[in-house]
Structure prediction request, 438 residues.
Amino acid sequence: MILRSAAVAGGLVLALAGCGVLMPGGGQSVDRTSAGPGVTEDSVKVVFVGVDLDAVKEQTGFKTASVGDPEKQVQVLEDWVNDNGGLGGRKLDAVFKMYDAQTDSPASEEKLCNEVSQDEQAFAVVLLGQYQSNARPCYAQRKTLMLDISLVASDKTIYEELAPYLWTPSFPEHDAFVNSYIAALDEQGFFEGRDEVAIIAADSPVNRRSVENKAVPLLKERGIKGEVAWVDTTDIGTIYTGGEQAAVTLAGKGIDRVIFLGGSRLASIFATIAGSKQFTPRYAISSFDNPSFFLGNPETVPSTTMDGMVGIGFHPPQDVADDQMPFPAEEGPEAECVAVFEAAGITFESREGARQALPYCDAARLLKLGGDNVDGELNAATWADAVKKHGAEFQTASGFGNALDKGNAAAGAYRVLKFADDCRCFVYEGDEVPFADE
Prediction:
């Protein structure tokens, strides 16, 4: 049991990558007349958080493309920003901090928040691998701008509650994602012949809103009951226990369609547990579920688990292989980011290997867009005003479309994602489809 739990903990990380009470940023008066923390006349301090996925891979034996040296990647982006005028004339002072996601917990994330906001007194933080509900409110309380590149659910309400501090430069807003996800699954026949499906859901305030106010009603409109299994994501033990209980319950009820909502940790852990119990439902899939993990670890997740998987993808580095979508793209933000790294001698064997570097690049580009267009003092509020005004100029290097002209999350479109029997791989089908606000 100990060895198995350790393996699941490794899968959890690879499936990635005193502030416990919500005190909304949007509910506080926001000062636009003073410089923000970490801002001087000459520089702006920004902390980039890293997760050492390569170390976890060596420890557990799980297979995944190497992400390279994230600290060096951050240095390259710092140099690129500063060689191109900085942030409105100020130098970017990038500080790299490695976070041990294997020990992820509310206490660990509060500790990191304290280090960033109090010890470093940073203007902004680029968040990676932060899944606990207390993390983002903590930074907002400390007036620290967040560029969130974690595959975690953030809905319109949390962006409003934490305004102007929370932004997502690489991924979609979660309400729009859920609207599109359910619609696409319906169009692809995932619910055909069924009047009940299971939702394995992370038990967080944001995800409860998405599931209860969006997913379940959308299924009900289609004549389908959503059987929700809530999983406590406080730590590895609670995730494993919740997944095991859900697998036993759903198998007993004979429910053979499963959707995951709330983050990339749930799918790989649940599928591993379910397979060990000979529970073999058909799974829906999205970028939040880290499709590449299923392909790369057949000893952990049997290949039959992927049979019939269908859903939507918005993050190519973890969705499809390079033979399905050539890497790098010939033009556009992805090509531009790859060129920045290549000019500094950093190359990637595959798009999957760039799954941390590209969101880092998105964060640096968005920081620069706001910093270059601030009117008056540089703080989170004036930076947010600038991004709202110029958001239509930004497109993520990590996915499709653009939604910063209407919200705080950059990814504006998706493609249908399927597991194909002929290549035993995930493929995109059809054109890009804008995420549906309603």
In short: Residues 1-27 have pLDDT under 50 and may be disordered. The first helix runs from residue 2 to 14. The longest strand covers residues 425-434. The radius of gyration is 21 Å.
